[in-house]
Amino acid sequence: MRTSMHVYSVIILCAAGALFNNCAYHSGEEPVPSNRDVRYSVDVKPILIKHCYSCHTDTSTHPDRSGYAFFNDFNELKKELKPSTANTAYTILVARLKYIESPGMPYKQTPLSDSLIQVIQDWILIGAPEN
Ligand code: HEC
């Protein structure tokens, strides 16, 4: 009966979210982490290095680099975990990855796969530790 309980709780969450016009549940996104053992150093950082560091470091020379938001600094990365103004149910980081906040990231490139975005969401859901 776990599945029906889950569906039931999602309906309740969405109903509560609808009151505030920001239901956080979308297909492919679970309100609880799918992996609680996610680690920043092993799982999250390599994604950022591969897909984001070319523009998001203070030493980037990429023509489309960001002039701020240097994710090689963990404290800078944590600043992106505030709610997005585009949809407060999401952090700025995830809202950019899901193209909810524009421009979507990685900038002018193919969006990350749902499974990579899920790794980052899982990490945020467990409290975004520097583990
Ligand atoms: C090709 C260069 C490039 C790449 C690659 C890139 N970004 Fe960006 N990013 C930018 C630019 C430029 C901006 C500023 C754009 C704007 O908001 O107008 C930006 C802005 C952002 C912001 C908003 C920062 C803020 O506080 O306003 C976030 C979050 C972000 N990027 C996350 C990412 C993530 C995560 C990745 C990797 C998956 C990534 N970006 C990859 C160029 C890039």
From TrEMBL:
Keywords, ordered alphabetically: Signal
Lineage summary: Bacteria, Pseudomonadati, Bacteroidota, Cytophagia, Cytophagales
Cleaved signal peptide residues: 1-24
GO molecular function, one term: heme binding
Name of the protein in its database record: Cytochrome C Planctomycete-type domain-containing protein
Keyword Transmembrane helix: no
InterPro entries linked to this entry: Cyt_c-like_dom_sf (IPR036909)
